[in-house]
Amino acid sequence: GKQEQEDTQQEGVKKIQIAVIPKGTTHEFWKTIHAGAVKASRELGVDIIWKGPQKEDDRAQQIMVVEDFINRGVDGIVLAPLDDRALCRPVQDAVRETIPVVIIDSELQGEDFVSFVATDNYKGGVIAARKLGELLGGKGEIFLIRYQEGSASTTKRENGFLDTITSEFPGVSLLVQDQHTGATTETAYQLAENLIGRFPEVEGIFCPNESSTFGTLRALQESRLAGKIKFVGFDSSPKLIQALRDGHIHGLVLQNPMRMGYLGVKQMVLHLRGQSIESRVDTGVYLATRENMDDTEMKNLLEPDFAAYLDR
Amino acid sequence: MKKMDIPGLQIIGKKRIQYVISWLAPFLGLMLVLAIFSLMPEVQDRFLRVNNFKSVATQSVIVALGALGMTLIIISGGIDLSAASNIALSSVIVAFAINAGIPPVVAIVFGILTGGLVGFVNGSLITSLRLVPFIVTLGMLGIARGIAKWIAGNQKIDAPLTWVNELMARHPEPPWLLMAPGVWMMIILAVVMAVVLRYTVFGRHVFAVGSNEATARLCGIRTNRTKIIIYSVSGLFCGLSGVMQFSRLTVGDPTVAVGLELDIIAAVVIGGGSLRGGEGSILGSMVGVFIMSFLRNGSTMMGWPNYIQEIIIGAIIIVAVSLDQLRHRRP
Amino acid sequence: MKKMDIPGLQIIGKKRIQYVISWLAPFLGLMLVLAIFSLMPEVQDRFLRVNNFKSVATQSVIVALGALGMTLIIISGGIDLSAASNIALSSVIVAFAINAGIPPVVAIVFGILTGGLVGFVNGSLITSLRLVPFIVTLGMLGIARGIAKWIAGNQKIDAPLTWVNELMARHPEPPWLLMAPGVWMMIILAVVMAVVLRYTVFGRHVFAVGSNEATARLCGIRTNRTKIIIYSVSGLFCGLSGVMQFSRLTVGDPTVAVGLELDIIAAVVIGGGSLRGGEGSILGSMVGVFIMSFLRNGSTMMGWPNYIQEIIIGAIIIVAVSLDQLRHRRP
Amino acid sequence: MIQNQTSSPLLQMKNISKNFGATNALDDVDFELKRGEVHALIGENGAGKSTLVKILSGALKADKGGMLLEDTPYSPSNPLDGRRRGVSMIYQELNLAPHLTVEENIMLGKELHSWGFVRQKEMREKVKEALEFVNHPEISPDVPVGKLSIGARQVVEIARALTGRATVLVMDEPTSSLSQEDSALLFQIIGRLKEQGVSVIYISHFLEEVQEVADSFTVLRDGKKVGSGEIKNVSLEELIRLMVGQKIDEMFPRVEHEVGDELLTLEKLKGIHMQDEVSLSLHRGEIVGLAGLIGAGRTELMRAIFGLDAVVEGSVKIAYLSMSPSSPSQRIRQGMGYLSEDRQGEGLAQSRSLADNITLSHFHPYTRFGFLRLKKRRAAVHDWIRRMKIKARDPDQAVLSLSGGNQQKVALARLLHQEADILLLDEPTRGIDVASKSQIYEWIGQLASLGKAILFVSSYFPELLGICDRIAVFHRGQLVDIRPYSQWTAQGIMAAATTGKAV
Ligand SMILES: Nc1ncnc2c1ncn2[C@@H]1O[C@H](COP(=O)(O)OP(=O)(O)OP(=O)(O)O)[C@@H](O)[C@H]1O
Ligand SMILES: Nc1ncnc2c1ncn2[C@@H]1O[C@H](COP(=O)(O)OP(=O)(O)OP(=O)(O)O)[C@@H](O)[C@H]1O
Ligand SMILES: [Mg+2]
Ligand SMILES: [Mg+2]
Q1: Is residue D185 part of a domain?
Q2: Do C14 and D21 touch (CB under 8 A)?
Q3: Per-residue pLDDT tens over the stretch D187-209
Q4: How many pairs of residues across A and C have Cβ atoms under 8 Å apart?
């Protein structure tokens, strides 16, 4: 009965309240999703509550956050699940309490959600592999530097990369492929520094997310190898954009987090208002290079204008 | 002169007040937290609902089970930094076993025993090499976590759903249970451990070892054996906690519970446990666990940003322990 | 009877051996680590290069600076769990200040002072509320990290490149420096602190407070003041460490150094620091830092998967401290 | 039967040797204990007495030698082994778990239980009985031991040793913190135990006690046995000669000193832990003794004067200047020094070196611009070790490796080194051997002759009578009476201390 009541859109009675739950809160990527969500909420006149697990990337903590919002009785939940299985039950719980769920960014098993809005991560890895293979002219020795153990979206990127490199570029060989950077930039930095010390012959590197890309970039810059080693990374931040311009990074695979956040909330609101929505939305992956980085479309992806939506 | 005439009475009066205070002190922090959120207009109606209390109880099980063992260890003057890694390892083992087609009951036993084994190794190293617990368990923190990742092949293990996953369901299967079986288990085990600490010879020896190890040894207590038992029992609790973790996640995740050892230790210390040994109680530790859980729950409900939550929880830890200090101040 | 004729000689002989052992003991672990990797055919040529040693030195600076302060604290019988959060906070402050257009020198001073302030607050709470350091600094762990995230707006702060970022450059600006200015700073400060601990009245007070606080008070040492100084100095070191962290990353990252406090503490304890207070040395702690750095460096070079690294580092921590125990065993 | 008992000794220790690093604590010592006898083990500080009995109890392992208990080989690997064979022990340093209650401490390691569950009621009864047996029924079984005074703790420790069934009972300086009344009671108890066939090894530096209670004796010197025999065949002088290798002319040497101006004035002083206010004055060149039973509140008074406890009423004046409220560091700068009765808990930093401990309250002579001159300090500490006859290898040795009496000397050395004007001495001669004691009395006298003021707390009344100018008697936190020493007798002090009324 509640939904019909809100369908009538009585202003001032009670605004729709939507919880948006990212995997973490401190990366630029999530910041941009937040901006997208705020944008949608302003356009559609709803309230959003933005809240990640207290420890970044901790499945158990994310489950608690979902449960706590169920108890608070929000109208809908937009969730970027840290695990495609572990979050199933809390999502079921939400549905049982008639709280609909939209999934963004990463997959969730089952059918309990109303829509799935995400990047094709595997495809992101494929694009990166093709770019790096092309940069190296189809032969050379490279590193695949992995992010964290058990992180699904980056693992997909890594797999996309690995599959493509081995199948399409037989001349390229992997010097390293099972080293994980861990969660922070500093650990990535040290890892890359030590790897370069061991394999100075390396010609190409791929990193699957922002922190690993930036840590590795710092190591390359410090070793005065930036620009000499072909380097493809993932996601953007001001320092990475600068590096792209300087030729220290040769390609950045980009997602469209702004759109992801925006569509996630929008799909939810449309659903709450009783409209039918697509069950799957691909927000796309793009490759930014030094050449195309000043195109307006790329510029928007590289430097999303979230200042307009977030206070700081 | 006059007051000297009835020193007995005076002492009893003072003692009774002291006793009441000392009994209430651990609860003060909890009341404070509950009061804060009950007064927040945004959540007060929702916060005080039975359903919310049920969620908080379920969310507390994992830390609470860890804290039961940690209480023993801290009373005995030790510390266990490997508790969280141990939980992750055990949960991976359960998932691995279920995945391999082993009956769930056996898988659970494997998980618990894995925890016990890690604890036993901790205890044995501490006593045989005469190393400080901090170091041994710090080493074990890395070792257990590494083994968990190894077994899981650097990935989470997707195990088929079984009744094990019902242990931590917020809506338990026979509905008359009211709360998840895991919550009942936590309550029963807490009572058992409280009785063990208070009414058994073993319990006394735990306090004695923590209060003055040399004395305990000179009084003929086999301190090494006692310690090994303490660490093993605590390991078993971590194992069970790992089972619950698996039940909740439905997957075996080697990266789960990173840093949870600090939460567990904090709960015990908030509840009056002294890191110098000789002090602590099960009741106190449980209250400590719930203080932290309600704080998290309330802040999330309020939608406070994580950094605010981090700051507040940090501050509350200090405040709660300061309140507890009241007990120890001489009147 | 005969041996009694020259008791002096006998004593000197035994003492010298003991002395040599006690001097070498902290190095044993380091030698072991260096030896292991030098014997690995895959990396030996690369591992033993000057350039590799330079990177390890640079990688060690952040932990080493933290460990200098932590050594003081641990000797005095305390512990500082907030060290890593403090480093993150200070690095964010520096980035924030530089970003705001404040001259780099001033920004650095701000960063260092922020660290000192956090330490001062730790020390004041510990002494005035008479709380155990574990709890106060556990609370501060959350508070400082939360404030860092708050100031940074849950993001990295991108600051323009300045000479500050040269402090940790592996190829330092005037090339005759050979190593990064940060490395030199670390070496100089280590020597200063070693001298302070050994040859100043303050150093003796630190040991006395850690060995028996009641005695220290009885002997007229203002234990509270001493502790506040200890925590403040240690905070200043964390602040400097934060500056170095910023210098290395070129951004102010509030999520950096999570869990690093355990590395710092492990380094001090591997180097002979006792968590019961009264024992520890700067030389030992520095050796502890390098043991851990070389372990990480070597394992990465070997291409061992991370879980193997975690397991090995865990095991080495235990082994290194066991070796250190040899010193303390009575012959 | 009885003849059989007396013919073969209950315990034989043969050729026992023990080294701690370069220290020969015991060198080829033989020791025999007969059934039902009280055997005194005496010797200077650091002679090896404690080491010998620790080997007997299983707390330490001998390097060489063997033991026979009841004609069967006996080599305990830990104290539990020893207790199983009937060896019960009171250690020299207090061995109680501070967080546990009196009952828990007394029953520690021998809890009554069914299926692992303690039978609390029964144990409480047993403990009450034991406390009554040692004449201290007022000690509640439910108080945590950490809250008791040192004296009360020693009572608890004695009660604990008596609750087990023992064939050999070892007492290492059981009376060091007891009042004479309690000591006398202990002797009665020992007498009863003897009748029951228990053998007692009794270690003490109070030789009169030894003569009163013991049947036979063994003297150790520098880790070697230098004599043994029946106590009735030997005189006090001879015992001393055996122990120290020389004669002591005067047990309580009085050094001439002149009482001067008033230096310390307590005006209705009441510390936070004191039961009653106390007024007292102390003059330059004066030694004032404070007598009383355990728990009389003398330590609390000292702590309040020294600023360790908060003052709630009244004031402390030094040379007529009011100086409170205050802290120990200020007191030290005002020229006051304090020797704690609890050398283990607060008197000494056990893990630090002798040098650090002796100079901790007074680094001044060895600093230049805040830096320590270690060589100079080493030399000075060497001097103190020689002067105090501390048995130690070198100034860098950790205090915890010293014998009990030698630790006490270190604590005393620090106070003397500090060059204070007002000395607060709380049981300064606890555990110190006869020869050193008389040396210490002489020093105290010399300090007085230099114009220092000394407050001397002791439960050993002869030493108070021997060296003090005035003696104050405390009873339950109140000052009963203060008079010149010549107007007191040992009995008078005892009566005042127990009844609270001066005769
Ligand atoms: N743990 C130890 N480490 C090194 N030396 C020790 C240790 N324990 C005792 N010693 C040494 O052994 C010698 C004998 O000590 P012991 O405690 O047996 O003396 P004691 O006769 O009991 O003296 P006291 O009357 O002072 O108690 C002393 O020189 C002491 O320094
Ligand atoms: N038998 C006892 N039971 C409980 N508390 C006691 C007992 N004896 C002493 N105390 C505590 O100790 C305090 C006094 O002890 P204090 O050490 O000051 O006495 P003292 O005269 O110095 O005796 P001692 O010779 O034992 O040092 C009392 O106020 C009381 O709190
Ligand atoms: Mg002795
Ligand atoms: Mg006293």
Answers
A1: yes
A2: yes
A3: 888 888 888 888 999 999 888 88
A4: 88
> Contact C172/C181 with Cβ under 8 angstroms?
yes
Q: Token digits for A3?
A: 């939904």
Residue A85 C-alpha, separation from nearest chain C C-alpha, in angstroms: 23
| Rounded Cα gap, residues D153 and D157, in angstroms | 6
CATH number for C28-37+52-326 (one of 2.40.128, 1.10.3470, 3.90.1150, 3.40.1350): it is 1.10.3470
Give the pLDDT band of residue A15 (cuts 50, 70, 90).
confident
**Does residue D347 have its Cβ closer than 6 Å to ligand 1?**
no
Does one domain contain both D124 and D151? Answer: yes
- C-alpha span between A45 and A270 (Å, rounded): 12
Beta strands in D272-344 (DSSP E): 278-283, 287-292, 311-318, 321-322, 336-339
Q: Could you tell me if D391 and D294 lie in one domain?
A: no
Q: State the angle between helix axes of B306-328 and B282-302 in degrees (0 to 180), rounded to the nearest 10.
A: 150
Residue A9 in this model has a pLDDT that exceeds 70? no
Same domain, D160 and D226: yes
Q: Tell whether D476 is covered by a domain.
A: yes
**For helices C223-249 and C104-128, what crossing angle results, to 10°?**
150
Q: Is D343 inside a domain boundary?
A: no
| pLDDT averaged over every residue in chain D | 87
Asked if B269's CB is within 8 angstroms of C143's CB, the reply is no
Alpha carbon distance C69, C78 (integer Å): 11
In tens, the pLDDT along C6-49 reads: 333 344 455 567 667 666 766 877 888 888 888 888 887 888 88
Last residue of a domain, one of D220, D244, D268: D244
Residue B26 clears pLDDT 70, i.e. is over it: no
CB nearest B313 (choices: C142, C269, C275) = C142
Which chain C residue shows the shortest CA-CA distance from A147?
C306
Confidence of residue B14 (pLDDT cuts 50, 70, 90): low
Instruction: Looking at the structure, tell me whether residues D310 and D391 fall in a common domain.
Output: no
Q: Hey, which of D101, D139, D149, D340 would you mutate to test ligand 2's pocket, going by the most ligand atoms within 8 Å of its Cβ?
A: D149
User: Quick check: D475 contacting B, CB < 8 Å?
Assistant: no
D464 & D402 share domain? no
Pairing of strands A115-118, A140-146: unpaired
Candidates C42, C155, C171, C294: best to mutate against A (most CBs of A within 10 A) is: C155
Q: Which of D23, D56, D63, D173 to mutate to test the pocket of ligand 1 (most atoms within 8 A of CB)?
A: D23
D84 or C127, which is more confident?
A: C127
Closest CA to C255 of C155, C322, C159: C155
Q: How far is the CA of D150 from the centre of ligand 2 (A)?
A: 7
Quick one: closest CA in C to D348, which residue?
Answer: C215
In-domain check, residue D346: no
CATH number of the domain to which D59 belongs:
3.40.50.300
Nearest to B270 by CA among B296, B291, B297, B293: B291
Chain A residues touching residue B169 (CB < 8 angstroms): 89
| Last residue in a domain, options D419, D441, D459 | D419
Domain range for D356 is: 351-419
Q: Which chains contact B through at least 3 pairs of Cβ atoms less than 8 Å apart?
A: A, C, D
Is residue A6 over pLDDT 60?
no
Give the ligand with the smallest distance to the CA of D131.
Answer: 2
Domain boundaries of chain C, sorted by first residue:
28-37+52-326
Poorest-confidence range of B207-211, C223-227, D178-182?
D178-182
Cβ proximity of C100 and C298 under 8 Å: no
- Whether residues D262 and D372 fall in one domain: no
Distance from CA of A209 to the nearest CA of C (A): 15
Chains that touch A (3 or more CB pairs under 8 A): B, C
pLDDT bracket for residue A11 (50, 70, 90): very low
Packing angle of the helix pair B282-302, A59-72 (nearest 10 deg): 70
Ligand 4 center to residue D301 CA distance, Å? 9
Q: What is the pLDDT of residues C145-196, one digit of tens each?
A: 999 999 998 888 888 888 888 888 877 777 788 888 999 999 999 999 999 9
Ligand nearest to the CA of D434: 1
Q: What's the domain count of chain D?
A: 3
